[in-house]
């Protein structure tokens, strides 16, 4: 464990699982972050201003996320990614649960913006998020190339929200 990597190690669920807050050298996780947001210049817009959390199982990095303070007692999950070989094993779900608990009492709402995809929207809905609003043409206006998920081009950003409780 790098001494500048964490401020906080939180033991969760069992002895093998821990979530670390990453304070410095966040760019070293770029390969994993690019799984959820495939344009580095877009990641750069929130990387340093956000809080980064990494989930490790048996000391192996499995998933990562970045959360930003958006004002008005609202935080936004800007990026959440699980290493390809560990997807669909509950790591993303566990990270969302941690984030929800971590920010409850300090913030009222957790937002997440995603492409309109049959892969991502149901995942967030299963984790307590409900439709909030959309930003028309977000992906076509802000990315330098067309983006596709599950064979469908992403055009609008769909926002979902989750109310945080203490």
Strand and helix map with partners:
Layout: E1 6-11, E2 17-22, H1 30-33, H2 40-44, E3 51-57, E4 60-71, E5 74-82, H3 91-103, E6 109-115, H4 121-126, E7 130-135, H5 138-142, E8 148-149, E9 152-153, E10 157-163
Parallel strand pairs: 5-6
Antiparallel strand pairs: 1-2, 2-3, 3-4, 4-5, 6-10, 7-10, 8-9
CATH superfamily annotation: Gcn5-related N-acetyltransferase (GNAT)
Number of helices: 5
Binned strand content: 35-45%
* CATH fold-level topology: Aminopeptidase
Radius of gyration: 15 Å
Low-confidence stretches are 1-11
Description:
With 166 residues, this protein is an alpha+beta fold. The protein has one domain: Gcn5-related N-acetyltransferase (GNAT) (Aminopeptidase, 3-Layer(aba) Sandwich). Helices cover 20% and strands 39% of the residues. The chain has five helices and ten strands, in the order E-E-H-H-E-E-E-H-E-H-E-H-E-E-E. The chain has helices spanning 30-33, 40-44, 91-103, 121-126, 138-142, and strands at 6-11, 17-22, 51-57, 60-71, 74-82, 109-115, 130-135, 148-149, 152-153, 157-163. The protein has an eight-stranded mixed sheet with strand order 1-2-3-4-5-6-10-7. Strand 5 (74-82), helix 3 (91-103) and strand 6 (109-115) form a beta-alpha-beta unit. The longest helix has 13 residues, at 91-103. The chain is globular. The N and C termini lie far apart (31 Å). Mean pLDDT is 89; it is low at 1-11.
């Amino acid at each position: 464990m790098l001494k500048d990597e964490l401020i906080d190690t939180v033991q969760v669920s069992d002895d093998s699982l821990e979530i670390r807050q990453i304070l410095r050298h966040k760019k070293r996780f770029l390969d994993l972050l690019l799984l959820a947001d495939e344009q580095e210049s877009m990641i750069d817009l929130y990387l340093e201003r956000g809080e980064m959390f990494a989930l490790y199982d048996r000391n192996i990095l499995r998933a990562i996320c970045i959360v930003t303070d958006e004002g008005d007692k609202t935080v936004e999950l800007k990026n959440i990614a699980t290493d390809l070989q560990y997807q669909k094993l509950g790591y993303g779900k566990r990270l969302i649960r941690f984030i929800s608990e971590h920010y409850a009492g300090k913030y009222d709402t957790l937002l997440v913006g995603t492409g309109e995809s049959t892969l991502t929207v149901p995942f967030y809905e299963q984790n307590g998020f409900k439709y909030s609003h959309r930003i028309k043409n977000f992906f076509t206006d802000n990315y330098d190339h067309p983006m596709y998920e599950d064979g469908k081009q992403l055009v609008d950003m769909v926002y979902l929200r989750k109310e945080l409780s203490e």
